Amino acid sequence: MPSKARTGGALLRRTHRGLAVVLAALVVLAIVVPVGADASTRGVPSISWTACGPRLECASVAVPLDWRHPGGPTITLAVVRHLASRPDLRIGSLFVNPGGPGDSGVAMVAGRGDALDAQTDGRFDIVGWDPRGAGGSAPVSCFADPAERASFWQDQPVPTTRPDERRYLAKTVELAQRCGARNGELLAHISTTDTVRDLDHLRQLVGDRRLTFLGESTGTLIGLTYANLFPRRVRAMALDGVEDPVRFLAGTASALAQSFTDTDPTFRQFLRRCEAAGPDRCALAGHGPVAPYVEGVLSRLRHHPIPAPSATPPGELTYGEALTLLKFAVLPDPAIWPLAAALLEAAAQGDASDMETIARGYASEEFHRGLEPGIAILCADSPARQDASAWPRVVHRLQAISRVGAAPQGWAVGAPCASWPARVADRYTGPWNATTPSPILLVGTRFDPNTPLVNARLAERRLGNAVLVTHDGYGHLSKADPSSCVVQTTGRYLVDLSTPPHGTVCPSDRLPFDPDFGQPTVSGTMG
Predict the structure, then answer these.
(1) Which of 81, 97, 190, 526 has the fewest Cβ atoms within 10 Å of its own Cβ atom?
(2) Separation CA 60–CA 50 (nearest Å)
(3) Bridge partners, 315 (sequence order)
């Protein structure tokens, strides 16, 4: 058995890798190459691509800042495509968006292009773009430089006490003012509706008569908006981790609340799967029932921080930091559940050093820099119905829906919207019942802490032509808890437009805490 020091170091390194995966959803990457002269035999401009990696081509595309005034000022979108590996059988382009809001479609294609190409049998160019306001597409930035941002936040964690809430609230008010001062007209033109108009323009530029689209998380809001604005232009649309557009667009508090429905149930599943795995696979097991044991740790944390003597620098872990780790890092990613359990167990034994070191990443300059575009898009789509003075009460009410999620998302993500200085000019709010020529494929994970399964069920009922596949798994999006069934079902649909029967349930390949989690099994595959 490894020594405690070696185990702790290994856990820290491996947990940092897990953290990097989560932060990749917040800190966007972009590859931008100047666009050349437009040319098209049909008179419609096309994209001038430049090679930028194995099977990758990049470009930047100018679009109107305001689509209602196409002759006005423009902004530039960063775009990338992964070339189809079977160009002789190419169907067209598959546009992809990873959600966020504001996550990088360029990074998605750069990182997952080969896998998406394999999933769709090499039949599509995989096209991603950074949505306006983020990444390489006129990104929102609220500070002059990283040093100014770091000085502003001073590594202040998510608050859970009344005095800390007052201090944090004042920061969010000033943040909103800074964002307005530094971004001007841009903030009025970064709604999901604006992004959908960009997407339709890109579809035309690549020469596709109809759109083929894969959207994840808030990328499903892009898909649902497109399908309802342009239903006859949809060829195929797969949406994984569905947002409820009705509640999402009803205001910031409502947008947050609709994402919390399964946060605490997923936390209970984390504890339940740990207990079932036993102490050999889950460090929190072996003390009797796991749930009351962990509840005791959180209860103690709520009243007294846990020392973190070996953190960098030494300090102590607060209740808010523990909730932030659970919400943003642990629950969405079952692959790191064993690591999270080990860190919680160390904290339970009185040393939260590793947890504290990781938690500080969620109060860092890098974290807040990554949040700014997403906050701006959220505030554009879902303007707050309460002012800043009422926001603490909003967060307290959200705690009735989710103890784990309310403070981290209510403060770090939602609070600035209560002071946001801009209102968008173009914002589609429904209806959401369009019928597309081919069915839309919906994928919902049974225990998803960010996009609950009920959202997908609502979308299936609302849309005139949709089929839901239930992923019987855990974590945010089906890829977090791999299912060969979901992968193959989605791939067949995108290629052949064939949908599974209504009521289809896809199992995960393995359970969390399995040492081979993430590896396929014979029983998890489909013929």
Answers:
(1) 526
(2) 10
(3) 308
Tokens 């649909």, residue located: 493
Paired residues of 113 in beta bridges: none
Which residues sit opposite 216 in a β-bridge?
A: 240
Local confidence band at 392 (pLDDT 50, 70, 90 cut-offs): very high
User: Does residue 176 have a pLDDT over 80?
Assistant: yes
Give the model's confidence band at 278: pLDDT under 50 very low, under 70 low, under 90 confident, else very high.
very high
The pLDDT of residue 46 is 85
Predicted local distance difference test score (pLDDT) of residue 50? 96
Query: For every residue of 154-181, which 3-state class applies, written as one string?
Result: CCCCCCCCHHHHHHHHHHHHHHHHHHHH
**The predicted structure's pLDDT at residue 511:** 96
Please enumerate in sequence order all residues whose Cβ is within 8 A of that of 202, keeping only pairs 6 or more positions apart, or say none.
Answer: 47, 61, 77, 79, 95, 127, 129
- In the DSSP assignment, the letter for residue 472 is E
Residues 371-386: b if buried by 16+ CB within 10 A, e if exposed: bbbbbbbbbbbbbbee
CA distance 355 to 200: 44
Give residue-wise pLDDT tens across range 106-139.
999 999 999 999 999 999 999 999 999 999 999 9
Distance in angstroms (rounded) separating the CA atoms of residues 476 and 465: 25
Q: In 3-state terms, what secondary structure has residue 305?
A: coil
Nearest to 329 by CA among 17, 108, 3: 17
Q: Quick one: which of 183, 184, 203, 206 has its CA closest to 195?
A: 203
